[in-house]
Amino acid sequence: MAGGVVALVVGLVLWTLNLTGYGFRWSRDWPLLIALFGIYELVTHIRREKRKRPVDVRSVLKELEEGKIDAQEALKRIEKGGKK
After folding, report:
1. Whole-angstrom Cα distance, residue 84 to residue 80?
2. Sign of CA dihedral 26, 32, 35, 37
3. Per-residue pLDDT tens digits for 35-53
4. Could you state, in order of their start, the residue ranges of all structural domains in the chain?
5. What DSSP element (H or E) covers 18?
6. The whole model's pTM is what?
């Protein structure tokens, strides 16, 4: 995610510094491509984070208290996002 933010900021700063005239010119507008790459990276990161399943810590702790799983298994489930 940090790479996407850096690419976005650097690209936008360089593009605005080079912004003069009309139309797309490679010599002037190449920083915009860096900014677009940064936006792509940020969107990809956000989508990936939304897909992660949150851990239901209460159910893991309940199974631990009932003796269905041991402490190591509970820790693994919490760290992996609740997957068995």
Report:
1. 9
2. negative
3. 888 888 888 988 888 777 6
4. 2-51, 54-84
5. helix 2-18
6. 0.43
